[in-house]
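Deliverable D4.2, example record:
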Amino acid sequence: MTTTAETYHVPVLLKESVDGLNIQPGGVYVDVTFGGGGHSREILDRISRDGHLYSFDQDADAEKNAGKFFAEQQERGCFTFVRSNFRYLKNWMRYYGVEQIDGLLADLGVSSHHFDDESRGFSFRFDAPLDMRMNKRAGKTAADIVNEYEEGTLADVFYQYGETKNARRIASAIVKQRSQRPILTTQEFIEVAESFCRKEQEKKELAKLFQALRIEVNQEMRALKEMLVSATELIKPGGRLSVITYHSLEDRIVKNIMKTGNTEGKRQQDFYGRIETPFVAVNSKVIVPSDEEQEKNPRSRSAKLRIAEKR
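Output generated by the structure prediction step:
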């Protein structure tokens, strides 16, 4: 599949999320989810030669499809692409000698490219190897998890990350099937799981199962928590955290860090009973895409944007 920076991934809530950073022309910013570069391009358009943007993506395809614009920005000295999981944010900032940043943006959704690439196994629309790794260089594949995890652990993955009611029955059926032959493709996985899905809700329930596997493969919740803790330490007073989420699991973690300063949501109160948190919310209500954006980009329909400022 041939893609360009423009088609690799359609940015969601582009203006709203970058506006939320309150860009200072000479500031230092981080986009931890480069994808097709839409948000990064917008940030670069707003900073001066004295500013700098660090963009993270662990997928080699993202860097490959970045295009001429980002090569020019890199030569100009105001852009650095970091091919790494954003969980290592703090380590990389230390490597580049950055002690504080003015803002961080994260678009946590899976890239359009991943869903549309038939070879990656992210979508049940295509029969493909059961892979789902964002970083193709390392880690377990979805097939490894489906064929190697104990029944109870597999059920927990489906229940916790997919909120699947039939998690235990599906896990049991998978274990029974893999004892006869390994489950190696998306279609083979669907053949086991679809009998537990209601016909009128089949696509939605399969999507939840695929989501659960993808989250486990890429350790998304752990990586998100580590990144947000690092961001809390790195963002300077007056700096902004702008995060777009797509499902309740990640949204809860983001809401917790912004409200309490920790990913578990444990509230600490001062002498007067006020909640101690390093952030103050910029938007009192979550920002959602307009009807027009949702019509043009169906992927945006579940998106929520939260913005907070460091005290």
